[in-house]
């Protein structure tokens, strides 16, 4: 593939002969170079281990530190100075497309269905010709003319090319183009490519260091004059080094029919100050249905509310942001929102989860890796979320069945009822008269923390013991579940399953002791799993210190006891020992090589110092 020779500018993307990618941050002479008049490119490498410094060098003249550029990542080893003649500045879009997708009349790789000069040795020691059938049929799918979607990931595309009209002739019919991980850095070049793809509906530009489209490229301005790129429905701009929401607001005119916009892993923290309206709400984007702002440095709900007036928004993805809470929505905010993803946030209280009930159309929720669920098992957290958010029908990608919701709500009501009873019972000591006013305040405080409790308590009144009329002990006794325990171990698989009514607070270690007595299998050899119902997947009970409730074991669950395969464990231990030994040997070898290189470098430095000293004496 031939390269494109250009004069680099600040921000130009480059690659070296080893395929490492970087960005030009400086162009000019280098103070430490032998030839002070020679021009170098100051590069910040994407892989910080590729460089040698942070953009500063020691001056050859006076030994002072001279900074030519500063690495944006803050790394001390991401910078290098390289002559432009040793850098690759990428290839054009049309050339890459024609080389990636072969011509129909191009020579076959396997004429007569046989690879020339390619043989395999048979078990008998004879050579056998390798055959390749169906090449002509496959080739039909390698013709740009016959397909609508192309992927040119990591192909080194950096510009549209000199003759952009060729793009329209060759690829104007394409509906989806994936340019992830290329060398595009100029939005003007992106505009030149889109201009020639009149049928384009989906464009993937993630992992291109494009930055903000600021000022708006001329190609985009011209497109707005003609009504914008009306066919484009999905635009993927994850990890493009965007630093502000401001320029994004201009996309509403450039892509007027945009339905999906992906902006993950960019810095959009200024969203609240970059909106055009007086109420800090994003305007425009009349057709936008999905917005992904994961890992975009959002920290407050007020920033998220900036998107609340998008009229058609159905799915909002905001994973991996440091958001600490969710507020209730009001009026027409998020009026069509069906799905929310908030995994990896810093949610500090369940109030935010409870407030999801104010999203009237919410059906799909992804929530996890949060401080409030960190102390729970996956099954327990799922059950609590299902109970607290009444409208959710899909949670973390899995459907919420009617039975699962029923069991989750019952478990939740029993848990809150117990909390109510415990709060009331601790309002005075044994000899004091209960203070009804204090009790009432404590009840209100508990119910305030569980806004769904009263409705769910009415719904499941028959299955719980309400806190108002019983002792803490009676409430605790009602927090029990019926389970059936089966042995799958070879020595006891014929033993009848045992049905038990157990407290949900029972530790798994205690359950294993019960299994040991019933099925005569040592605790250390037991593997326990459970199924909530016949259609559920097996879930492990793999922490002896946690309880049945922690794992979300519900009423009617089936628990299965399996036996540890000791031989398999021995084999795994042997493999692990071998792997550790090999890793140690590699480390020793690498250290030896590093020491040799270090000594060689030190010898070179000493030699240069001796030369300088000798020259000084002369």
Automatic annotation (TrEMBL):
Pfam family membership, one: CAP_GLY
Residue ranges constituting the CAP-Gly domain according to the UniProt record: 10-88
Keywords in alphabetical order: Chaperone, Cytoplasm, Cytoskeleton, Leucine-rich repeat, Repeat
CDD domains: Ubl_TBCE (cd17044)
Renumbered residue ranges of the record's region Disordered: 593-618
Localisation: Cytoplasm, Cytoskeleton
Entry GO CC: cytoskeleton
InterPro entries assigned to the protein according to its UniProt record, in alphabetical order: CAP-Gly_dom_sf, CAP-Gly_domain, Leu-rich_rpt, Leu-rich_rpt_typical-subtyp, LRR_dom_sf, Ubiquitin-like_dom, Ubiquitin-like_domsf, Ubl_TBCE
Gene3D superfamilies cross-referenced by the UniProt entry: CAP Gly-rich-like domain, Phosphatidylinositol 3-kinase Catalytic Subunit, Chain A, domain 1, Ribonuclease Inhibitor
PANTHER family registered for this protein in UniProt: CILIA- AND FLAGELLA-ASSOCIATED PROTEIN 410-RELATED, LEUCINE RICH REPEAT PROTEIN
Stated family: Belongs to the TBCE family.
Name by which UniProt lists this protein: CAP-Gly domain-containing protein
UniProt source species: Triparma laevis f. longispina
Taxonomic placement: Eukaryota, Sar, Stramenopiles, Ochrophyta, Bolidophyceae
């Amino acid at each position: 593939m031939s390269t494109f020779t250009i004069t680099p500018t600040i921000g130009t993307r480059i690659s070296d002969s080893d395929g490492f990618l970087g960005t030009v941050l400086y162009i000019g002479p280098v103070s430490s170079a032998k030839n002070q008049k020679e021009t170098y490119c100051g590069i910040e490498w994407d892989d910080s281990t590729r460089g040698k410094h942070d953009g500063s060098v020691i001056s050859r003249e006076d030994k002072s530190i001279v900074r030519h550029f500063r690495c944006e990542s803050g790394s001390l080893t991401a910078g290098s100075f390289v002559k432009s003649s040793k850098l690759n500045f990428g290839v054009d879009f049309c050339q890459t497309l024609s080389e990636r997708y072969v011509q129909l009349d191009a020579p076959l790789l396997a004429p007569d269905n046989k690879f020339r000069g390619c043989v395999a040795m048979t078990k008998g020691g004879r050579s056998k010709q390798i055959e390749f059938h169906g090449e002509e049929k496959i080739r039909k799918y390698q013709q740009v003319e016959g397909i609508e979607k192309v992927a040119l990931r990591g192909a080194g595309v950096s510009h549209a090319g000199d003759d952009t009209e060729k793009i329209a002739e060759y690829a104007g019919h394409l509906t989806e183009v994936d340019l992830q991980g290329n060398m595009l850095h100029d939005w003007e070049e992106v505009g030149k490519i889109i201009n020639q793809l009149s049928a384009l509906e989906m464009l993937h530009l993630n992992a291109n260091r494009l930055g903000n489209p600021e000022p708006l490229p001329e190609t985009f301005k011209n497109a707005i004059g003609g009504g914008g790129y009306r066919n484009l429905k999905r635009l993927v701009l994850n990890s493009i080094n965007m630093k502000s929401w401001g320029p994004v607001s201009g996309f509403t005119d450039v892509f007027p029919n945009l339905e999906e916009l992906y902006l993950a892993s960019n810095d959009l923290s200024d969203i609240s100050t970059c909106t055009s309206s007086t109420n800090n709400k994003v305007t425009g984007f009349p057709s936008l249905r999905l917005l992904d702002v994961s890992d975009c440095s959002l920290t407050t709900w007020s920033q998220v509310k900036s998107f609340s007036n998008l009229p058609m928004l159905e799915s909002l993805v905001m994973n991996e942001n440091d958001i600490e809470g969710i507020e209730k929505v009001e009026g027409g905010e998020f009026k069509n929102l069906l799905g929310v993803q908030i995994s990896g946030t810093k949610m500090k209280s369940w109030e935010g989860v409870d407030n999801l009930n104010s999203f009237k159309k919410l059906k799909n929720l992804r929530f996890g890796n949060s401080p409030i669920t960190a102390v729970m098992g996956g099954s327990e957290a799922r059950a609590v979320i299902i109970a607290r958010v009444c409208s959710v029908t899909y949670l973390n990608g899995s459907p919420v069945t009617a039975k699962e919701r029923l069991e989750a709500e019952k478990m939740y009501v029993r848990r809150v009822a117990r909390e109510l009873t415990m709060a009331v019972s601790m309002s005075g000591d044994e000899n004091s008269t209960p203070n009804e006013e204090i009790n009432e305040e404590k009840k209100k405080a508990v119910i305030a923390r569980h806004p769904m409790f009263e409705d769910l308590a009415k719904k499941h009144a028959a299955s719980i013991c309400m806190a108002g009329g019983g002792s803490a002990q009676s409430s605790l006794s009602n927090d029990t579940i019926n389970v059936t325990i089966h042995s799958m171990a070879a020595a006891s698989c014929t033993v009848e399953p045992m049905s038990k009514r157990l407290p949900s607070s029972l530790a798994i270690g205690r359950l294993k002791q019960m299994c040991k007595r019933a099925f005569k299998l040592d605790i250390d050899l037991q593997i326990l799993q459970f199924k909530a119902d016949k259609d559920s997947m097996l879930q492990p009970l793999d922490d002896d210190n946690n309880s049945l409730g922690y794992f979300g074991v519900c009423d009617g669950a089936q628990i299965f006891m399996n036996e540890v395969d000791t031989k398999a464990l021995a084999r795994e231990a042997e493999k692990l020992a071998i792997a550790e030994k090999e890793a140690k040997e590699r480390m020793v070898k690498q250290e030896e090589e590093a020491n040799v290189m270090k000594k060689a470098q030190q010898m070179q430095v000493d030699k240069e110092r001796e030369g300088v000293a000798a020259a000084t004496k002369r």
